[in-house]
Amino acid sequence: MTRAVADSRRSRGYSLYVLGLFMVIYAVNFIDRQIVSILAPDLKADLGLTDAQIGLLFGTAFALFYALFGLPMARLADSWHRVRTMALGLTLWSGMTALSGLSGNFAHLGLARMGVGIGEAAASPAAFSILQDYFPRRQRATVLSVYSSGIYFGSGLSLVLGGWIIATWQGLYPLSPPFGFKGWQIAFLAVGIPGLLLAAVTLLTVREPVRGAIDGQPQPREPRPFRTAFMEMAALFPPFSLVVLHALGGDGRAVRRNMIALAACILLALAATIATNALLDPARLAVVGHFAGMAITTNFVQWAGFFAASYAVFCWVQATRLRDPAAFALMIATPAFALLPVVSGLISFIGYSLNGFLFVYARRYLDLGPQAGLTIGIITAITGTLGTIGGGFVADWAKRRHGNGRLWVAAASSSAVAIATAVQYSTTSTTIFYIAYGCASTFATIWIGPIAATCQDLVLPRMRGAATAVMFLGANLIGMGLGPYCVGLVSDITGNLRFAILSVFVMLPVILLCLWLAGTRLAAAEESVTARALTAGEPI
Q1: Residue 209: inside a domain
Q2: pLDDT tens across 304-341, in order?
Q3: What's the confidence (pLDDT) of residue 506?
Q4: Which of 51-55, 249-253, 450-454 has the lowest mean pLDDT?
Q5: Is the pLDDT confidence value at 118 over 70?
Q6: Do 83 and 202 touch, CB atoms closer than 8 A?
Q7: Is 90 exceeded by the pLDDT of residue 198?
Q8: Which end of the chain, N or C, is less packed with Cβ atoms under 10 Å?
Q9: What is the CA radius of gyration of the chain?
Q10: Distance between CA atoms of 528 and 170, rounded to whole angstroms?
Q11: Other C-beta atoms lying within 10 Å of the C-beta of residue 274
Q12: Which spans in 48-105 are helix H?
């Protein structure tokens, strides 16, 4: 064996190690994110929460901060040391997960979930960017699918661990647990603390690759990365957003558009709050606090947060157009790219809605106890992992045969999910429920690699973290930010959780339309990436 071949094999082996480690980190990410699902019945009982509040904790409280802080975290990953960015985020979200176990009410738990969202925002932008510099373009969907399989391994493990910890703790201490800790509190502590050790492993063993070298476009780090990331964050929140807009050369028309967007978001938030409050029986309105003598309901928190995030995204788009014309041109101004975060959001709307209330439904309609978390968790881990990795292989195969192959794979899998889910939530048989869930879980995971790889192919290497953040912006702002809350709200209004869950498939026709529209523009967008970047002023 020649020295070159040996070096190549060692390099290949190390690349696979990095991929495997990142998959484990992403699994931990989703254990910490999804464990609220299995803990929901106990949280409702101990803290007196409604379905809408569970949806807000599972979705909005986490998702809005994940989505918004994903943009400055992605900027930091694109301009600084990506390994350190990832380890920093891992430390933060693991610590906040552990602190969730010390929460005594809805507000405390909500604040902890916000912290989890901020920390987790650093993971995928940094990981996606690093992995693109360890593996060639032809393997992009496969590699990102292997990494993304951590979603379902982690989601499944969260159910297994959560159910087992609660059942074991209740069995050991049915009356007087140590320090008064409930089973759900021990579960948060048990899944949060190991992440701190994993952050140290990441820092000590992962080497930072040269950005863009594998694509023949090596790019240095920016000289002032933290200033760049801070400016990115400042662009999201008023009044700093107006200061940034002015500093970047925004004219009077830009400021007026910003003010119109702010006013529209305020009015929409108030209108949505009034409408949702009116739909609920006053006796069922969940009040989370008071301000100036007025009751602050869960619905107000939801809509104020969602439209505040929407305004922040508008501010970011304005700032990006002025600060980074090339990134704006390749992402926001390119329909083939801009449609993909919408697709990501709508598919995630369905997925997070189903996952958020899976165990609540199983407990309510099928009378399954905490031990069912083991069965559901194993199904989730196996089918989700196989679906994600298999979807990547199929998508790369389809791409080699047709330019839109990856998008058609995502369309087909989304349609199959609807069929399997309709069976799952229409049966009274536990066996059929599990089988249908396994089928739905397999198909529901296939879209991630194809969509992520398509986003990566439409930008320059220096923008890969930002492209990832924008994709997850849709997944979290639309998917987690609206999906679980809307299902919980419909359930509270109708008293029918089954109807609320199945209603999410009104999104399917919109998903298929967006994928078709993106496909009609994809080939031209892929072929013109460099040319359009040059036109926008990129010094390639």
Answers
A1: no
A2: 888 988 998 898 898 889 888 999 999 999 999 999 99
A3: 92
A4: 51-55
A5: yes
A6: yes
A7: yes
A8: N
A9: 23
A10: 60
A11: 13
A12: 51-55, 61-79, 82-100
Question: Residue 365 falls within a domain, yes or no?
Answer: yes
Give residue 266's identity as a one-letter amino acid code.
Answer: I
pTM of this prediction?
A: 0.76
Residues 482, 59 contacting (CB under 8 angstroms): yes
179 class by beta-carbon count within 10 Å (0-12 exposed, 13-18 middle, 19+ buried): exposed
Q: Nearest 5 degrees, angle CA 32-CA 464-CA 72?
A: 60
The total number of structural domains that make up the chain? 1
> How is residue 370 annotated by DSSP?
T
Domain that holds residue 234: 3-202+223-535
DSSP annotation of 284: G
pLDDT value, residue 25:
94
Cβ(374)–Cβ(164) under 8 Å? yes
CA angle (110, 116, 119) in 5-degree steps = 145
The DSSP bridge partners found for residue 295 are: 290
Phi-psi region of 281 (alpha: psi -120 to 50; beta: other; left: phi over 0): beta
End-to-end CA distance of the chain: give it in Å, rounded: 39
- Would residue 210 count as lying in a domain? no
Mean pLDDT of the chain: 84
Q: Which residues pair with 291 in a beta bridge?
A: 294
In angstroms, the CA 15 to CA 259 distance is 48
Contacts 24+ apart (CB under 8 A), 213-218: 213/133, 214/132, 214/133, 214/134, 214/135, 214/136, 215/132, 215/137, 215/461, 217/460, 217/461, 217/540
CATH number where 185 lies? 1.20.1250.20
Residue 249's SS3 state is: coil
What percentage of the chain exceeds 70 in pLDDT?
A: 92
Q: Which residue has the tokens 């943009």?
A: 71
In eight-state DSSP terms, residue 287 is: E
Tokens 């979290």 correspond to what residue?
Answer: 476
Backbone φ and ψ for 288, nearest 5 degrees, come out as -105, -5
Helix, strand, or coil (residue 219): coil
Q: For residue 27, is pLDDT > 60?
A: yes
Q: Please tell me whether the peptide bond between 239 and the residue prior to it is cis, using omega within 30 degrees of 0.
A: yes
Token pair of 200, please? 């140290």
Of the candidates 454, 477, 475, which has an alpha carbon nearest to the alpha carbon of residue 335?
Answer: 454
Give the total residue count for the chain: 540
Does pLDDT of 408 surpass 90? yes
User: Could you tell me if residue 211 is inside a domain?
Assistant: no
Residue type, 189: L
